[in-house]
Amino acid sequence: MRQCGLALKFAREHQADRNLVLEAVRECGLSLKYATEPLKADRELVLEAVRQRGLALKHAAAPLKADRAFMLEAVRQNGWALKFAAEPLKADRELVLEAVRQNGQALEFAAKPLKADHLVVLEAVRQNGWALYWAAESLKTDLQFMHVVALRRNWDVTRLLFLTRRADATGPLAALPEDALELVLRFYIRDRAAEHLRSLP
Fold it and tell me: Of 36, 42, 94, 165, which is the most buried if we count CB atoms within 10 A?
């Protein structure tokens, strides 16, 4: 099993052997797909699979995906595991924070209200700047919030423009022409950065 965990697919006689399956998922988390149903409900074994590949959680037993304590462990191992959490858990702020701290892109799978949560989005962006793509449009058109993001990531205006332009054309920034939007962002960020520097001891 060490050469390729997916070999478990063709080793039907070993799919119920916990030790062999454990070895297989450590090599290739997705081989959890071929384990027997009782092993897909084995907390330790599933966590090993998730540690190797977050998407392995897709093949875990449904009760584990709805188990908050288990999912907290899972997203700490791999933020992508949030994708397969039971829907109520995707609205759990603590759990989502743990997920985005491990992998900012996990923000994609958070419940809609949490995509508008300043702390959740900032934590996601801190881990992976491109997570801003998944933030609520209200945040991406909020100059003050975008200023904080720019300072946290040390981004230039070009990057900010690219990501704010992902917003729907309904917000105040989206209504501006490209050159005007760039000027607004550039001067706003410059002025806020200057204020921040003056406030330092």
Answer: 42
